Amino acid sequence: MSTATASTGYRIQGATGEWEVVIGLEVHAQITASKAKLFSGAATAFGAEPNAQVSLIDAAMPGMLPVPNRECIRQAVRTGMALDAAINRWSRFDRKNYFYADLPQGYQISQLYHPLVGEGAIAIEPEGADEKTIGIERIHVEQDAGKLMHDQHPTRSYVDLNRSGVALMEIVSRPDMRSPAEAGAYLRKLRSILRYVGSCDGNMEEGSMRADVNVSVRKPGDEFGTRTETKNVNSVRFVMAAIEFEANRQVDVLESGGRIVQETRLFDPDKGETRSMRSKEDAHDYRYFPDPDLLPLELDDAFIAECRDSLPELPDAKRRRFETELGISAYNAAVLTAEVETARWFEALLAAGGDKVPAKAASNWVISDLFGALNRLGLSVEDSPVSPEQGAELLALVADGTLSGTLAKQVFEIMLETREDPAAIVEARGLKQTSDTGAIEAEIAKVLAANADKVEQYRGGKQALFGFFVGQTMKAMGGKANPQVVNELLKKALG
């Protein structure tokens, strides 16, 4: 197997030299903001009993006519706007004809020739690399097929039509990605934008967002090679692994004198490899034609304006605002805006804290203390035992000197266990920081008397010992002394 090198970007080092990888993604995103399907009123909840969410339209009963779901169209338009894409005011549904057990109509209603959304772009920042723009070719709206279940019976396959007719956005990228890392960054950024907009929940493990991965290889600067398509990959990690394997496989085939066959492949996550599913050269003619049961979609100015006005602040804009207006570091701003739930939690914290909680200190606390605790407990920020309001109260107690940093950590651990408010914990357990100079001076005197040799060393020029005296004094005070007062009094006592 060939190995990747980072000499000039991402390259695969083969026996005949370097190879470049060319990647495009077709992402199927389920429109979850609507509780109904694309052309019927059937429910779309995940995990329902098989065939429990199937209307007469979904089952292709004779005489049933599809009616477009306005909310699905609206969400697709809003998504296109969030990707800075062209919105086509006139679009059309086509029939894609093929026969399979999970497609009762014998065709899928899709958009081939006149999609709802045209060209757009996404800016990505792969780890350790410069920002790059990935082109979006189009977004078209289509209905999903059902699902075949092969593991329910030893000799039969069962059909579940719950997904039949579910509204999908197919978001097709340009072949602009050149490494697994870029593809991963693109998919994460796209998922983030969809979740900010609210048009897709992005739950790849539930199948509501999945990617078809197009991969080819070429000598740097050559024409595009023959590509393969790996279908229905359902995690960012698996997309990156599929690209890695498939690109190396193609290099090995080409360098051994073979040729790449344009085909559809599947990714096996257990083995970390792709395998052939069917040849594209033998693919059926889908015989696309305009759906005779559906009029073209025509969007008026009021609908376009309503879609645009309903868009939230998107992750890139929010990140820039956090940096410029709140003075948060670029790293912290990127972390806090990567997921919409995190951004909402942080903004609720700032709103609750008002002028009492500095944004910079709040961002550091969320990323280090809160995220560290949530990771340890295996919880998401949505399931945090500590609310934004409680977090703001804790930070305000630090800001006004009631709690030291050490005491704040103790209080936070108690909050995680009990869900109590920090002020109540401080009061009940006597954890308030003290600035009583008399009490602190008395403990300092004891510390210096017990460490006379170190006092002599300090006064002889060993300044690093100052931290030792601070630590001993804080320990003697049970961590409740105001560190600033301790520092001032120690400097005075040590001369």
Automatic annotation (TrEMBL):
<dbReference type="InterPro" id="IPR003789">
    <property type="entry name" value="Asn/Gln_tRNA_amidoTrase-B-like"/>
</dbReference>
<dbReference type="Pfam" id="PF02637">
    <property type="entry name" value="GatB_Yqey"/>
</dbReference>
<protein>
    <recommendedName>
        <fullName>Aspartyl/glutamyl-tRNA(Asn/Gln) amidotransferase subunit B</fullName>
        <ecNumber>6.3.5.-</ecNumber>
    </recommendedName>
</protein>
<dbReference type="GO" id="GO:0016740">
    <property type="term" value="F:transferase activity"/>
</dbReference>
<dbReference type="InterPro" id="IPR018027">
    <property type="entry name" value="Asn/Gln_amidotransferase"/>
</dbReference>
<feature type="domain" description="Asn/Gln amidotransferase">
    <location>
        <begin position="344"/>
        <end position="494"/>
    </location>
</feature>
<dbReference type="GO" id="GO:0070681">
    <property type="term" value="P:glutaminyl-tRNAGln biosynthesis via transamidation"/>
</dbReference>
<dbReference type="InterPro" id="IPR042114">
    <property type="entry name" value="GatB_C_1"/>
</dbReference>
<keyword id="KW-0067">ATP-binding</keyword>
<dbReference type="GO" id="GO:0005524">
    <property type="term" value="F:ATP binding"/>
</dbReference>
<dbReference type="InterPro" id="IPR017958">
    <property type="entry name" value="Gln-tRNA_amidoTrfase_suB_CS"/>
</dbReference>
<dbReference type="InterPro" id="IPR014746">
    <property type="entry name" value="Gln_synth/guanido_kin_cat_dom"/>
</dbReference>
<dbReference type="GO" id="GO:0006412">
    <property type="term" value="P:translation"/>
</dbReference>
<dbReference type="GO" id="GO:0050567">
    <property type="term" value="F:glutaminyl-tRNA synthase (glutamine-hydrolyzing) activity"/>
</dbReference>
<dbReference type="InterPro" id="IPR004413">
    <property type="entry name" value="GatB"/>
</dbReference>
<dbReference type="InterPro" id="IPR023168">
    <property type="entry name" value="GatB_Yqey_C_2"/>
</dbReference>
<dbReference type="GO" id="GO:0050566">
    <property type="term" value="F:asparaginyl-tRNA synthase (glutamine-hydrolyzing) activity"/>
</dbReference>
<dbReference type="Pfam" id="PF02934">
    <property type="entry name" value="GatB_N"/>
</dbReference>
<keyword id="KW-0436">Ligase</keyword>
<dbReference type="InterPro" id="IPR017959">
    <property type="entry name" value="Asn/Gln-tRNA_amidoTrfase_suB/E"/>
</dbReference>
<dbReference type="InterPro" id="IPR006075">
    <property type="entry name" value="Asn/Gln-tRNA_Trfase_suB/E_cat"/>
</dbReference>
<keyword id="KW-0648">Protein biosynthesis</keyword>
<comment type="subunit">
    <text>Heterotrimer of A, B and C subunits.</text>
</comment>
<comment type="similarity">
    <text>Belongs to the GatB/GatE family. GatB subfamily.</text>
</comment>
<comment type="function">
    <text>Allows the formation of correctly charged Asn-tRNA(Asn) or Gln-tRNA(Gln) through the transamidation of misacylated Asp-tRNA(Asn) or Glu-tRNA(Gln) in organisms which lack either or both of asparaginyl-tRNA or glutaminyl-tRNA synthetases. The reaction takes place in the presence of glutamine and ATP through an activated phospho-Asp-tRNA(Asn) or phospho-Glu-tRNA(Gln).</text>
</comment>
<keyword id="KW-0808">Transferase</keyword>
<keyword id="KW-0547">Nucleotide-binding</keyword>
